Amino acid sequence: MNRRINAFMMAMALGLSALAPSAAVAQAEAANAAEQAAPAEPAAAANATAAPAWEYSKPVKNVGQPQEGEYSFQEQFTPTGHYAAWMHDYVLLPVITVISLFVLALLLWVVVRYRRAANPVASRTSHNTFIEIIWTAVPVLILIGIAIPSIDLLAKQFKPAPKDALTVKVTGYQWYWGYEYPDNGIGEYVSNMLPAEKALERGEPRLLAADNRLVLPVGVPIKLIITGADVIHSFSVPAFWVKEDAVPGRLNEKTFTIEKPGVYYGACSELCGARHGFMPIAIEAMEPAKFAQWVKSQGGTMPGDKPAEAAAPAPAAEGAQPAAATNAAEPAAPANATAS
Ligand SMILES: [Cu+2]
User: Fold this and answer.
1) Which residue has the higher pLDDT, 311 or 191?
2) I want to staple 281 with a disulfide (CB 3.0 to 4.6 A). Which of 2, 51, 147, 266 is the partner?
């Protein structure tokens, strides 16, 4: 009897293991099919006003991404970033270096000059008002010198966005990002990490490349509204001096202005679960005119367009939003499933 049960169990196990890969293959095929079908649909939804899929630009090596052997900040591409890098390079680092060398020199001097052989009778001085005033006043002055640019930098980082800023809503999910353009009527689309081979094929860094990028205009203040859908994530882009927690049930705001078109990479910076290391941020920054083209290609409108084509394209754009959102989401889900 036992043997029969064992045999039955074995057969079941074998059958299941044989089934499992074929199920996975079927799933992968479905994912591929979805991926192939996806680009065609938004074009139809957007009334064929633009190219079906946007052709992203190629990243420039050493710009907007980590470099090999790098030990300091990435090159900055926002005014706040320049200011912060300046503070680090020309205020903090020199002060730290000078103080460290000064203390080291004092230590060496004390060790050599006041060793027992050179100074057999120790001084019994316990107070020196002049020295005490100096060693209190000088550190205070140094701290004030650091505090002024530091508070200034803090104020710059938290400066509210001007009225003409472009608002983009960023949502962190386990484990991908969602981007939505409320000002432009573009519904949320999803951004997933590209597999390593695909990233390298496109000349992008592995673990940082994403299928759909966050597209932003250059020279325009950008207001990101950042939130989390499930757990706390953190939206972080080193080249912009941007790092903001994405907290469920809360809207955090971050304002910055990008100076140069290009591709900039970041990553989730708050431990958010098993695939935390695989939810990169890829940003495509472009000239405002090109950004307007991109918005149209996604079925959205620019704020200035509204009076001219208010009535006609609105329903089309509305129809396009959910389509674009679901199309973007479709390949996303199987990609997650196959990866995990
Ligand atoms: Cu994370």
Assistant:
1) 191
2) 266
Span from the CA of 173 to the centroid of ligand 1 (angstroms): 9
Tokens of 77: 């591409």
Compute the average pLDDT of residues 255-267: 95
pLDDT confidence of residue 70: 87
Looking at this protein, which amino acid is placed at residue 37?
A
Distance 171 CA to ligand 1 centre (A): 12
Distance (Å, rounded) from C-alpha 268 to C-alpha 255?
18
CA 234 to centroid of ligand 1, rounded, Å: 6
What are 228's two structure tokens? Answer: 């989390």
Domain range annotation of the chain: 79-117+129-157, 165-302+310-339
Q: 205 alpha carbon to ligand 1 midpoint, in Å?
A: 19
Residue 336 pLDDT > 70: no
Q: Do 299 and 317 contact (CB within 8 A), yes or no? A: yes
How many whole angstroms separate alpha carbon 256 and alpha carbon 241? 9
114-145, pLDDT tens digit by residue?
A: 999 999 998 898 899 999 999 999 999 999 99
How far, in Å, is the centroid of ligand 1 from the Cα of 303? 33
Which segments of the chain are extended strands (E)? 166-173, 176-181, 186-191, 214-217, 221-228, 233-237, 242-246, 252-257, 262-268, 280-286
Residue type, 78: T
pTM here is 0.70
Pick from 47-51, 97-101, 172-176, 292-296: least confident:
47-51
Summarised one tens digit per residue, pLDDT across range 153-162 is 999 999 999 9
Measured CA to CA, the distance from residue 222 to residue 255 in angstroms comes to 5
- Beta carbons of 242 and 157 less than 8 angstroms apart: no
Residue found under tokens 């006003």: 49
For 299, the token pair is 């079925």
CATH classification of 165-302+310-339, choosing from 3.10.105.10, 1.10.340.30, 3.40.1350.10, 2.60.40.420?
Answer: 2.60.40.420
As given in the structure block, the two tokens for residue 41 are: 């649909």
Task: Extract the tokens encoding 59.
Answer: 């990243």
- Distance from the alpha carbon of residue 242 to the mean position of ligand 1, in angstroms: 15
Distance, CA of 107 to chain centre? 44
